[in-house]
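Please predict the structure of the following assembly.
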Amino acid sequence: MRLTTKGRYAVTAMLDLAFHSQIKPVTLTDIAARQTISLSYLEQLFARLRRAGMVKGVRGPGGGYKLCRKTSDINIADIIAAVNEPLDSTKCGGEANCQKDQACLTHDLWMGLSEQIRDYLKGISLADLLEKNQVQEVAIRQHHDAQQVIEIYRHPD
Amino acid sequence: MRLTTKGRYAVTAMLDLAFHSQIKPVTLTDIAARQTISLSYLEQLFARLRRAGMVKGVRGPGGGYKLCRKTSDINIADIIAAVNEPLDSTKCGGEANCQKDQACLTHDLWMGLSEQIRDYLKGISLADLLEKNQVQEVAIRQHHDAQQVIEIYRHPD
DNA sequence: ACTTAACCTAGCAAAATAGTCAACTATTGT
DNA sequence: ACAATAGTTGACTATTTTGCTAGGTTAAGT
């Protein structure tokens, strides 16, 4: 389990998607604008997320991306694993050069630790994160903004 | 909290140090040989660990490095944090450009998650990891002893 | 003095990260 | 049918991080 900014980008984008794709698909352009991530970088990340079966692309006007599963069925560990290269189990990938070595022992130790972190992140879903914090405040504000837009369009004078 | 191979190297080296520095300081050359990490890279890592007050260097012949604290008082999160750059809190470092933005909210969300991981790793000490290692060694030794016992009982003459 | 090993500095190659550009294909509203 | 939208792909570039090399200086034991 590797934790870098790449994983953070992926989780952030998925959070954005989860939040905004309730009604209709969300374009990467929108996510890029909201989260200040470059569009093309997002394309790369979402290509991996799509291959991992986490999101689905909808083409044509009104298209975009939407989640394949419920937010409660998508966990953080899977998102991060999807955008990262499958970490090669390093030097002692079961080979003979590292059987009775102490290097292999500490390696096992680290692998165990890594596994614990993965399990920990597997226990946190998108829904958990969405539930937290002042996300609702944003909902209210954005609803308000949307209302204003409606007002403007309603009275175009 | 960032999790990369760099942090793994640091934890591995600290484990080696904790395991071998019971009697006298351990040279980086020894650790480099045992853990197959380049000497100079270890020097870089230990420079940071030293500045973080986790290890102490002893110069001259018979010198090397030793831990500043008990293994039970050294946790994994601190080791990893010591060798990593202090991650700039990114774009919205409390500035005005990101106050009511949604980008800042998801950022907060990620920071919260990161904090959870840090707390989790803070709860794991070197002593904890060593204990596991010890258990394994004991298991191996006991297996070996058991074999000898079997031998003895097989040829009791 | 001489050796040992920490400590320091600069630099470098490979990899990962982050982002750009351009061409292409599929879908849909009009 | 056609134009607009939006996903898809691949190649390409810049920056940062990683892991390592090579060369020193400094402190402490023999």
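Confidence is low (pLDDT under 50) at residues 91-100, 147-157 of chain B. Chain B has six helices and two strands.
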